[in-house]
Amino acid sequence: MRANFIFSEVWIGLRRNLTMTIAVIITVAVGMAMLGVGLMINSQVGLMKNFWDDKVEVSVFLCKKGTAMPACNGKAITPAQTKALEAHIKGTQGVKQVFFENETTAYENFKQSFSSNKALVDATKVEDLPQSFRIALKDPDNYESVIQAVTGQPGVAQVMDQKQLIAPFFSMLDKLAVAALTVAIILVLAAALLIGNTVRLSAFNRRRETGIMRLVGASNLYIQLPFVMEGVIAGLVGGVFAAVILIVAKVFLFDQIVGFFGGATALLGWNDVAQTITITMIIGVVICILASFVTLRRYLRV
Prior knowledge:
Elements: H1 2-16, H2 18-53, E1 57-62, H3 79-90, E2 95-101, H4 103-113, H5 118-123, E3 132-137, H6 144-150, E4 156-161, H7 162-205, H8 207-215, H9 220-260, H10 270-299
Helix pairs in contact: 1-9, 2-7, 2-9, 2-10, 7-9, 7-10, 9-10
């Protein structure tokens, strides 16, 4: 009987405040979706950084005849200089492994990297690409000392750290994640205020029933429970909509971004998405419960 009464009160409250309940659901859905997107971006950035940390290399491009680089003076590196440079690189502290890439290998890698740009591949010849040493580092963050040790060596045209090339992209993703989380926090606060107003309006509309319940000795929890359940239901429905948004974002945003790199990076898994959905739904429901309790304690003297 008590359960039937509570559920009937919940239904009455939802029906009387339908527009406010819909507003709460939409706000919770958008807020939790933004929070989830921010968490997913953080997870994706972490996966990509871990993926690339093991693959980031320092590229040492060697001089070719007629090279415009000032360090070459138009002269190609000699075989003796190539051997001496390789020995010098291997003896440098922080170097894990050294790979030599000749012109043919460089051209094949170039064709694979720019396969989507047929005009550029057709316009490039094997002899246009320089030989190079690819240096794998023990610590990818400690690349500056290796670059300093190699720069200026005879036959070296240019030294480039791949991490410097992808750093702006990761910086942009970090800023995007912070922006998404900031907007999410604002929307979560807005949802909490909306929930509080909805509960307050529902409590005001049912003040006579609440007064009768107090007179007959109903406990505070029993009086508060229907209002709290209204907030929980709104939070759960909003969380479901947020989950749908996060699944769509995973398929049409995160997977597309990884596809842009040709699959050459870590993909955000469905386990990560499920974990994010679980976290956002729990947060949404907890916010609804807290907002309901705080509002009732303030506006209902039970």
